Amino acid sequence: MTNTPRVTLWFRIVTLLLIAWGLVGCFACIQQFRLGAEAMGPATEYQRALYASLPVWYNAVYAVATGTALLGAFALLLRSVLSIPLFAISLVAVLIQFAWLFLATDIVAVRGAGQVMPFPAFIAGVAAASLWLARHARARGWIA
């Protein structure tokens, strides 16, 4: 018999939503690898040039960000403490990815902060919330 406390329904629902989020993120990453700038539909010349200028490591960081988020969500579902380092790695990768994009390119100047900042901010928020949830679950004894 295990002494691990039962998890709440909201925890299970959020964990399943994080798995869905991770699957969507991995799909988007694979699409970007396959289609490049055209992954989100017909690309402009600026989008093609921006994608072509991405450093070699950029796609690897994207893959790490999405892959570790998905693995972290599955680890959370399995009530594994490995979710904490996996979500931490994902958050760091997300921050590196978007910090480089916003600081090393002219995307904000060309497209405007209102157009390019909200979704990356949401992604970073989900990554941070996922890490918080894993730590909260550890503190509650829901994961071990």
SSE order, one letter for each helix or strand:
HHHHHHH
Q: Outline, from the CA principal axes?
A: elongated
- Strand residue content: under 5%
Specify the biggest β-sheet.
none
* Cα end-to-end separation: 15 Å
The SS-based structural class is mainly alpha
Number of helices: 7
Radius of gyration, whole Å = 17 Å
Which spans have pLDDT < 50 for at least 5 consecutive residues?
A: none
- What is the number of E strands? 0
The averaged pLDDT comes out at: 95
The amount of helix comes to over 70%
Please provide a written account of the structure.
There is one protein chain. The two termini are 15 Å apart. This protein is 77% helix and 0% strand. It has helices at residues 9-35, 45-52, 56-77, 83-104, 107-111, 113-116, 118-140.
List its salient traits.
144 residues; mainly alpha; single chain
Summarize the structure.
This protein is mostly helical. It contains seven helices and no strands.
List strands and helices in order, with pairings.
Blueprint: H1 9-35, H2 45-52, H3 56-77, H4 83-104, H5 107-111, H6 113-116, H7 118-140
